[in-house]
Amino acid sequence: MIKVRVPATTANMGPGFDVIGMALDLYNTFTFSMDGDNVDRGSMIYEAAKVVFDRAGESMEKFNYSVEADIPIARGLGSSATCIVGGMLGANALLGEPFSKEEILKMASDFEGHPDNIAPALLGGCVISIGTEDEVLYRKMAGSRAISTIAAFPDFDLSTAEARAVLPKALTYPDGVANIGRMAFLVHGLETGDVESIFLGLEDRIHEPYRSELIAGYNTMKTIEEVYPGKMVISGAGPTLLFVTEHGDNLEEIKVAWEKISDPLDATWDIRILHTTDEGAEVMKA
């Protein structure tokens, strides 16, 4: 029996659309075995595991799994990525690990369509990544230890398909140039731990202006920036909002203040402190 624990992830982080992701200390845990066959064969976990079994030329007869899920679904925290990474790592472990972590990264990214959530879920930390035909190119950025995040989960979901449908088909040069500049500040800050550069980099003009219209209460929640140093971004495709601030002793104070800001809104917002984690998916024998 194999257990796989996979962290939540936040992707995009402002201008890093589809290329930057960061692991957070909230987890889904999967248990895998080869002692049953009463599983949902249409699930993402099963389909991800099937990629590994098929690549290895092995049968999935008696493949079985269960899930302990703490990451909310369709909230922009990489729940799908945990299912893909968990399913593939679990299958790989059951088969005696015929595939390397880099091979799993490529298979999982191809399955998902992009590596921005997959890479930090598998590797931990804050990761910049792009997929090529043959591999996933990535670098981990150590400066993310300088920040902490406070996440606000609303009681409504938002599908990735819906969030992508509102994006424009083309970009203007001013918006493209603005994002390139912000991305440069963001990468510098995430690599060096320069918090001011991180804050300067957490501005976007190619997806957040459009997706924010789908998140009721967005403008009200953003007023937290007027009270505390930091920046609010949409986590992944949303609707979770993430306030990125310097790692320090006042996180609980900020959390309480954000809860008060959210109180008059129609939606109920679950607000939690989430720290970045350098630990990616962990495979254990149960």
Automatic annotation (TrEMBL):
Gene3D superfamilies per the UniProt record, alphabetical? 3.30.230.10, GHMP kinase, C-terminal domain
Name any GO cellular component annotation.
cytoplasm
Compartments where found = Cytoplasm
Q: Tell me where in this chain the GHMP kinase N-terminal domain is found.
A: 44-125
| Reactions it catalyzes | L-homoserine + ATP = O-phospho-L-homoserine + ADP + H(+)
Matching Pfam families: GHMP_kinases_N (PF00288)
Q: Which GO terms describe its biological process?
A: threonine biosynthetic process
Family assignment from sequence similarity: Belongs to the GHMP kinase family. Homoserine kinase subfamily.
Q: What does this protein do?
A: Catalyzes the ATP-dependent phosphorylation of L-homoserine to L-homoserine phosphate.
The protein's name is: Homoserine kinase
The source organism is Aedoeadaptatus coxii
